[in-house]
Amino acid sequence: MASALVIFKPDAAHRLAVREALSSWLAEERGWKLSGLTWYQPPKELIGSHYDFLQGRPFFPWLVDFMTALPVLVGRVQAEPAELENMRYELGETRIHESRPGSLRERYGIWGGVNCMHLSDSPESGEKETQLWGRYLDLTRGDAQLGADGARPDHTFHLRSLFNQVAANVHGDLAGQEATRLLREETDLTGDRFDALCRVLLGAIG
Ligand code: GDP
Predict the structure, then answer these.
(1) Residue 84: is its pLDDT beyond 90?
(2) Residue identifier of the C-alpha nearest atom 16 of ligand 1
(3) CATH 3.30.230.10 is the classification of domain 2-134
């Protein structure tokens, strides 16, 4: 049995309909077991260690900001290696424009590396990541209070279209404003936390 780290990244942790959809997927436990899920805002040093193989890539500073800007949902999944591989297949490819149609990332990720969920990509990385994160928090804690989120809209595809406009600078300002308005409908974050969500999501465009 392998252990894998699962993280609802800030987009999925705070876009409530997306959080609900991903929670439902995890709760299916088709050949895997979710053995903990809790809220945690990781420090920069933890994200730096977790993604140390990406240091030096142009998007690395954004990635650290993205993953540390808000509390995220972190947990542990236990599965046979073949089942973990299947879960990663269902999750889909890393970058949204390359993600397999029907995968979770194609359905719920917005743009670029804003791809909703982290899941360890092998038993070896699962072992390494659960050990690393286990030094900061108890990954077996199952105290995430998710609430009833079903009434919130899911604007993923509209947001993707608007992010493409921002990236291409086609009505860029208007597209950014409209994306912010849609994100406000999707989340219960307010004030500085809502601003942080918008900063890290739109910041993916660079
Ligand atoms: P994963 O295992 O599919 O999450 O992919 P990696 O371990 O290679 O990358 C870690 C994370 O870095 C991804 O999930 C993305 O959030 C981010 N990332 C990777 N490649 C890119 C990229 O080309 N651009 C941006 N903006 N982010 C990326």
Answers:
(1) yes
(2) 113
(3) no
